[in-house]
Amino acid sequence: MSIAVVTDSTAYLTPEERTRYNIRMIPLSVNLEDGSYEEEVEITASEFYRKARGAKTFPKTTQPPVGKFVQLFEELSKDYDEVISIHLSSGISGTYQGAVQAGDMVEGIKVHAFDSEISCSPQGYYALKAAQMAQEGASAQEILDKLEEMKKSMDAYFIVDDLSHLQRGGRLSAAAALVGGLLQVKPILNFENKVIVPFEKIRTKKKALRRVEEILAKDAAKYDQLQATIIHANSESEAQEWMAQLSSAYPNVHFNISYFGPVIGTHLGEGALGLGWVKVD
């Protein structure tokens, strides 16, 4: 049985990764004052932050139309028997549900929609593992079982400069945003039960980074090897500095750098930093 792997743009896989592992990508869109753009296709992250910085109206994001999924799945049905379609958390977007609906509408191919319950690079970990296993001849069930196993060691934390982006985007309650603003804190956020929630409120970014490192250290001691990604919102130099510090402290953790693209950047705001990781077999 031939298996195709699909993910959405919020995994922020590089074009090289998508090509190497034959991963298809469905883009989400960001709506700015001068129009709507499909991220990773029509607008880059740096272009987005430049446009958003001077905008008078708050950007909005849009999930892919179900028709785009239908079109892709019908195209894949010509060469594949099954699809594993991996998407950002259903608690913050309807993208996963769109894949489910499209899978029910398309004949000739079996679609397995997978809710990553997270986003960004950790979501990309699932897509890369699924594609690697598909290339090695694993069955769809074997791949899905592996993805569920990965959830047990998957973790990610995000540090934002301003909670108002999440609040205005409807991803955080007004009360939580107000409290954060009054205290002038640098909140640490994570995914819990598929939604973004405040994990801890720290007074300075330096202390927040240190707190996230403490959490990483526990898993670095627990597992033989980890894959970890530092994720930044238009602050690559800060990400590089943090990676250099962490790499020297945790030799059993394999670090790389990714970014918050337009859709996730809309909700976290410029200057946000994240760290996600998973156990390596």
Automatic annotation (TrEMBL):
The keyword Hydrolase does not apply. It comes from the Bacteria. Keywords: Lipid-binding. Gene3D superfamilies: 3.30.1180.10, 3.40.50.10170. The keyword Magnesium does not apply. GO terms for molecular function: lipid binding. It holds the Pfam family DegV. InterPro entries: DegV, DegV_C, DegV_domain_contain. PANTHER family: DEGV DOMAIN-CONTAINING PROTEIN DR_1986-RELATED, FATTY ACID-BINDING PROTEIN TM_1468. This is DegV family protein. It comes from Lysinibacillus composti. The lineage of its organism: Bacteria, Bacillati, Bacillota, Bacilli, Bacillales.
